[in-house]
Known about the structure:
binds zinc ion, 6-stranded mixed beta sheet, binds Fe4 H S5, two-stranded antiparallel ribbon, globular, 12 helices, Rossmann fold, alpha/beta
Amino acid sequence: MKCRKCGDRAVLELRRHNAAFCAADFVDFFRNQVREAIRRYRMFERDEHVLVAVSGGKDSLALWDVLLEDGYRTSGLYLDLGIFDYSVESHAKCEAFAAAHGAELIVVRVTEEIGAPIPVIKDVTRRPPCSGCGLSKRYLMNRVALERGFSVVATGHNLDDEAATLFGSVMHWQTEALSRQSPALASTHPKLVRRVKPLYRLSERETAAYAFLRAIDYIVDECPFAKGATSIAHKETLNRMEDASPGAKHNFLLGFLDRARPAFERVDAVPLNECARCGQVTTGTVCAFCKLAERVKRAG
Ligand code: Q46
Ligand code: ZN
C-alpha cells in the first residue's frame, strides 16, 4: 500500500476515501479536514479566543492539538464530573497535555457547582447518568465561556458521534433534535455562546490514528457509564454498515447536513428567557440545571 500523496509506504488506509497515507501525509490530511470544517461553517475567526472542551480522551485532545498547531488562541476547559478513577485519570491527562503545550486549562468541578458528583446525581434523579451529566456539561460549558469572555466553545465530537446522534434522532423522528444537529450552532441569544464541532468530518478511527501519530497521551478507558448507552448500540449498527459499504457514515451525516437538514429548520424558534435563579438561558422560568441542583440539595 502506497501513500496517495508521496508514494511512500502507507501506514493507514482510508477505505471511504479510497486512499492510503504515510504518517506525515495523514497528519496533513487530518488537519486539512479540520480546516475545511472551520471554513465551511465559519466556526471561528483567526482572532477569536476559542474555549476547547477537553475530556482527556483522544478526540478532544486531538482537536486541541490541531488548533494549537494551527496557531489559534485557545484555552482548554476540563469539567471534573467526579466519576471515580475515570475522572482522576482523565483530569491528569488534560493537565499534562496543557502543561506540555504551555496552554491554559480551566478546571470546573461539577460537585462544587451542583452539590454532588455525577454518580450521586444519577441516584438522586433515578435517571440514566448521561442525562444529568449531559445537561450539566452543556450548561457549564456555556456559563464558563460567558463568564470568561469566550464567544465560542469547540468540542471533540467526531463523525461517528454525530452519525450515531443523527441515527438516534431519525429512529425516533425527533424533529426538534434534527433541527439542532449541526457542526455549528449559532448563538441565538446574547447569553448563548456559539458551539462548534471541528472534527465532524473525521471518524473515530482517524482521530485515534492522529492521536497515536502525534504521541498524544490520552485516556483510553471510556467513562464507566458509557456502557449500555443507546448511542453505543447505534455506533455498532453504523459500524456494520460502514464495513459492508465504506463511506456509509460519511454519506449519512454529510448528506443530511447538505440536503435534509434545511427541511427541519424551525422558523418558529422557541423563545428564550433568562433563568430566575442563575440568569442563564432557558425556555422556562427556572433552568434545568438549577432544578437539578435543587433536587440534589433536597436529597442531601
Ligand atoms: S461522561 Fe457523562 Fe459521557 Fe459518562 S456519564 Fe454519560 S455523558 S458517558 S460522554
Ligand atoms: Zn438556572
